[in-house]
Amino acid sequence: MGLRTELFIKNEWRAASSGETFSVENPATEMVIAQVAKGGEKDVDAAVAAARGCFDSPEWRNLSGRKRAAMLFKAADLLTARRDEFAKIESAQNGKTFFEARIEVAMTVDTLRYYGGWADKIAGHTLPVEGPHLTYTLREPVGVVAAIVPWNFPLNIASWKFSPALAAGCTLILKPASETPLTALLFAEIALEAGFPPGAFNVVTGPGSVVGNALVRHPGVDKVSFTGSTEVGRGLMREAAATNKRVTLELGGKSPNIIFADADIESAIRGAQGAIFYGKGEVCAAGSRLLVEKKVHDQVVEQLAARAKKLTVGDPLDKNTRMGALVSKKQKETVLGYVEKGVREGAKLVAGGKAAQHNGKGHFVEATVFDAVTPEMTIAREEIFGPVLAVLSFDSLEEGVKLANQSMYGLAAGIWTKDIQKAHRVAREIRAGTVWINTYNFYDAGAPFGGFKASGFGRDLGPDALDGYLETKTVWVNLG
């Protein structure tokens, strides 16, 4: 398993200016797997200077969209050839199963290819204005981008940002989470081999409170794209205001997954299980609030609890394992703290609720289901980011929709029903950026993703994401 541990700036590997490093742990084994360069403000300055120098250079400014596309396509091919290598490293640093990590790498390849296809199709318009004028618009890259990404899908979410940014002609500094920096650094090898010029793609590892904040405050950064918690996102937005940065925020979620009595109950139960337990529940769009119509409530809860009890934890590299380790000891303790609050506030624990281990090691938590949850309970309001499901019940469509929207978040939602009119009506009434009907947790590079309300603004993926990396310039020519 090859591991890069230095900073990647201007197509060069270098130690942090301080010479310091930090440990990256495998959460399934509790073993340290790497010592990674601990970047600081001087390193951020160097990375921004590299990105700015590249952006302003004739080599990059005059590079056609078709040539940028070729680089993105080549990066996709190179990553495909190394899929299992990347998946093993992703699994080792995050604790997710190898099965899930391979899906993540495949989605990254799709994202690179999707935006490779866009790079030579970004165009302006001619405008039918008054007077003897030729008036047209140009779509130009916004400049230097800071991409700050979380630890749950380290490589895939990074690609949601660097792929459209590079396709648009921006240059970029990637700041991965300190728990999971290894695939970001490994991808720098691919960017180098794919032919991106020095400074187009940079990676600076280190604490968010230092590296992340320095990027957000830096006057040489034009745009910040952030995925993470709502609390951190709000602070980032305040810091970015000082330099008028453009900001895209994909933040927290407490997504409702609604099962109506007329649903295909078997499919809905399988969907509810995947919605919360895929990725150990460390998924921003996880269906962590299951809203069940009372007519089928008992049947759903009984079968879901039985399924949860069969989801035993195991070695993430074992192809049969479906529940990996939480990303860190801290995250495990946070999740177990929420379980304690759920019990204390009167919710009924029907499955799981305990820490677990594999071979006596690891930051595992059992698949957990709470029934008899009410909207005011902490586990119904706050994002847990772990394998903990809160089940609430409702009587009518109107009550179900009201419960679904009774949250400060609005990232995603699920609807399970055989009534197509009901499905479309509820999808329209729910305030969320993504609504799945009779399915859950599906993503595609061409489908925009982002939130309403406290779940953020702006979009990753799809053509909408490109808008966040482009400026519109209007040009007037007097023909009189």
Describe the structure.
The structure is a single chain. With 480 residues, the chain is of the alpha/beta class. The chain folds into two domains: 7-251 and 455-477, 3-Layer(aba) Sandwich (Aldehyde Dehydrogenase, Chain A, domain 1); 256-445, Aldehyde Dehydrogenase, Chain A, domain 2 (3-Layer(aba) Sandwich). It has helices spanning 41-56, 58-61, 65-81, 83-94, 98-118, 154-168, 182-194, 208-217, 230-241, 265-277, 294-310, 329-344, 378-381, 397-405, 420-429, 462-467, and strands at 7-9, 12-14, 21-26, 31-37, 126-127, 133-141, 144-148, 171-175, 201-203, 223-227, 246-250, 256-259, 289-293, 348-351, 355-358, 361-365, 368-371, 388-394, 409-410, 412-416, 434-437, 452-453, 456-457, 470-478. Strand 8 (171-175), helix 7 (182-194) and strand 9 (201-203) form a beta-alpha-beta unit. The chain is globular.
Q: Quick one: CATH class of the largest domain?
A: Alpha Beta
Q: Name the quaternary structure.
A: single chain
Question: Distance between termini?
Answer: 67 Å
Q: Can you give the mean pLDDT?
A: 97
CATH architecture of the largest domain: 3-Layer(aba) Sandwich
CATH topology of the largest domain: Aldehyde Dehydrogenase, Chain A, domain 1
How many whole angstroms does the radius of gyration measure?
Answer: 23 Å
Q: Specify the overall morphology.
A: globular
CATH evolutionary superfamily of the largest domain: Aldehyde Dehydrogenase, Chain A, domain 1
How many extended strands?
24
Proportion in helices: 40-55%
**Helix vs. strand class:** alpha/beta
Biggest sheet layout: 7 strands, mixed
Percent in strands:
15-25%
The overall number of domains is 2
Task: List the strand order in the largest sheet.
Answer: 14-17-18-13-12-20-21
- Give the low-confidence spans: none
Q: Give the helix tally.
A: 16
